[in-house]
Design goal:
heterodimer; A: mainly alpha; 15 helices; B: 70 residues; alpha+beta; Translation Initiation Factor IF3; 2 helices; 34% strand; globular
Chain lengths: 399, 70
C-alpha cells in the first residue's frame, strides 16, 4: 500500500489525540487514512487561527494596544523604531512576539526536518515588493492579520480594508495566471539559513533578560505592551502552529480565487471567529466606524492601502506572517522580504507618510498610488514563467 | 514516458499552478511533480486529490517526487 503523499503525521501530539477519526482509524485503509490526513491538517490550521486570534485578544488584555494584539506589520514597524531606523517616537518597541514567532517556527522546522536553506529567487525584487506592501499596510494601519483582528473587535473600517485586500489578491492572481514568477530559488549553504533565526533568538534572549538599550516609546502605541514573557510565549506558540499548518492570510483568499480551495481560508476564518468570540467575552467588541483604536475612517485609503498590500503580497507568495515563518525555515529570500518590510516602515515614518487616527497624509496617499503603479509594473514585467509543454520531459523551468 | 513538472525552487502557489495546468489537459496517465519544500508537497497533493488523481510521494534528499496517476 502506497501511503498518501500528504500523510505525514503532524508534529503536535495534542492535535493528533484530539482528532475524532482516531477511533476508526486503521492504517491499511487508504481512504480512511486520507480522510484522517485532510481532516487533521485542516484542524491544525483551525487551531493555528483560533489560538492566534485568542492570544491576540489576551495580549491586548495584558497591555498591548487595543486591536493590535498580534499585528505583524505594526510589530515590524515598532521593531524598525526599536532599532532606531525611524524617529517616530510613539512607535518604537522591540516586540517580543516577532522574535518568539521566528524562534518557534525555526524550532518547529528544525525538529520536523523541514528546514531547507534556499534563496536566489529575485531577492531584490522581493525587497522592493515588501517595501511597497508596507506602504499600503501603514496607510491602512495593519497587515492582513490585524485587518481580521480589527474586524473581530467591531472596527468596520477593517471590513473596507478586507474588501480592498480581496481586490488586491484578485489583481495579483491575474498576474499569476499570466505567468508571473519571481524565478526559482536554489540551495544555499546552510550558514545563510541560520543567520535570520539566530539573530532573532539572540534578540529574544536579550529581551527576556531585560535588555534596555533598544529604543522604546514612552507614550503612544509603542509604550503599550504585554509583559515580555507573555509576548514571547504567544509569539512562540503562534510560530510553531503557523509553521506546522502553513497558515497564511493572503494564501487563504488567493487559493480560494485560484483553485476554489478553502483549505488555507480555514485559518483566516477561525482567526476571525475566535478573535471575535474572545473580544465579546472580554467586553472589547465595539461595532462601528468612528472612534476605533489606532484606525482612521477614510474608506478610500483603507481600501486602496490594503489593495496595494494584497497585490504585492500575492506576488511575494504570502502575507507578512508567512514570510516570517518561511524565513525562519531557511528561505533567505523571505528574510530579505522581512528586511524590505522593516525598511518600508522606516521610510513611511521618517517622511511622515504613515496614516494615523487623524487620517492619511497627502504624501501617504501619493505613496499609495505610486506603490500601486509600481507593483502593477512589476506584475506585468515579471511574466517570464515558461508555459510551454515540452514533450513529456520537463517544464516549469523559468528565469 | 510520464510528464514531469519541475517545481523545485518555487514557492506556492506556483507549483500548484504549474501542476494544475498539466493535469487539467489530461484525462489520465501519470505525471511526476518535483518539489523541494513541504508546503508545496502538501498543496500539490491536495490539488491533485481534489481533481481525482491518486498521489504517492517519495523523497530524494531534500526533494520530493510526487507521482500523480489516474
Amino acid at each position: 500500500m502506497v501511503p498518501s503523499a500528504g500523510c505525514k503525521p503532524v508534529g503536535l501530539p495534542v492535535i493528533r489525540a484530539g482528532v475524532r477519526f482516531d477511533s476508526d482509524f486503521s492504517p491499511p485503509d487508504f481512504a480512511v487514512m486520507e480522510g484522517w490526513c485532510v481532516m487533521n491538517k485542516r484542524l491544525l490550521l483551525g487551531v493555528a487561527g483560533g489560538v492566534t486570534g485568542l492570544s491576540a485578544v489576551a495580549l491586548v488584555k495584558l497591555g498591548n494596544p487595543v486591536n493590535y494584539g498580534l499585528c505583524i506589520a505594526c510589530f515590524l514597524r515598532d521593531i524598525s523604531g526599536g532599532l532606531g531606523f525611524h524617529r517616530a517616537e510613539t512607535v518604537q518597541y522591540m516586540r517580543p512576539e516577532i522574535f518568539g514567532l521566528v524562534t518557534g517556527a525555526f524550532l518547529a522546522s528544525l525538529f520536523t526536518g523541514e528546514r531547507r536553506v534556499v534563496g536566489g529567487s529575485s531577492p531584490f525584487a522581493r525587497f522592493f515588493l515588501a517595501f511597497v506592501a508596507m506602504i499600503g499596510m501603514l496607510v491602512f494601519l495593519g497587515c492582513p492579520v490585524r485587518a481580521a483582528l480589527r474586524l473581530a473587535a467591531g472596527d468596520l473600517n477593517a471590513g473596507v480594508g478586507i474588501l480592498g485586500l480581496i481586490a488586491g489578491v484578485l489583481i495579483g492572481v491575474q498576474f499569476l495566471n499570466r505567468g508571473f514568477s519571481l524565478g526559482k530559488a536554489g540551495s544555499q549553504h546552510d550558514l545563510n539559513g541560520y543567520i535570520f533565526p539566530a539573530v532573532s533568538v539572540v534578540i529574544l534572549v536579550l529581551l527576556l533578560s531585560g535588555a534596555t538599550f533598544f529604543f522604546a516609546s514612552k507614550s503612544g502605541p509603542g509604550s503599550m505592551h504585554a509583559p515580555v514573557a507573555a509576548s514571547a510565549a504567544a509569539g512562540l506558540i503562534a510560530g510553531i502552529l503557523a509553521q506546522r499548518s502553513r497558515f497564511c492570510m493572503i494564501g487563504g483568499i488567493r487559493d480560494f480565487i485560484l483553485f476554489r480551495d478553502t483549505h488555507l481560508l480555514t485559518g483566516f476564518l477561525t482567526l476571525l471567529i475566535f478573535a471575535f468570540l474572545g473580544n465579546v467575552a472580554a467586553g472589547m467588541f465595539k461595532p462601528g466606524f468612528a472612534g476605533q483604536s489606532i484606525a482612521h475612517t477614510d474608506g478610500i485609503w483603507n481600501f486602496l492601502g490594503m489593495m496595494l498590500a494584497g497585490t504585492a503580497s500575492v506576488l511575494l507568495g504570502g502575507c507578512p506572517l508567512r514570510q516570517l515563518v518561511a524565513a525562519s525555515e531557511g528561505n533567505t529570500d523571505c528574510a530579505v522580504t522581512v528586511a524590505g518590510f522593516i525598511a518600508g516602515a522606516a521610510f513611511m515614518h521618517n517622511f511622515g507618510l504613515a496614516a494615523s487616527p487623524k487620517g492619511v497624509p497627502l504624501a501617504g496617499q501619493v505613496a499609495t498610488v505610486a506603490g500601486l503603479v509600481l507593483v502593477f509594473i512589476v506584475g506585468l514585467m515579471g511574466t517570464y514563467r515558461s508555459s510551454s509543454v515540452k514533450g513529456g520531459v520537463s517544464y516549469g523551468g523559468n528565469g | 514516458m510520464a510528464e514531469t513538472v519541475d517545481a523545485r525552487g518555487l514557492l506556492c502557489p506556483e507549483p500548484v499552478l504549474l501542476t494544475k495546468k498539466v493535469i487539467e489537459g489530461k484525462q489520465g496517465g501519470t505525471v511526476h511533480v518535483l518539489v523541494d519544500n513541504a508546503a508545496a508537497k502538501e498543496n500539490v497533493t491536495r490539488l491533485a486529490e481534489n481533481k481525482g488523481w491518486q498521489v504517492s510521494v517519495s523523497s530524494n534528499g531534500n526533494e520530493f517526487i510526487l507521482i500523480l496517476s489516474r
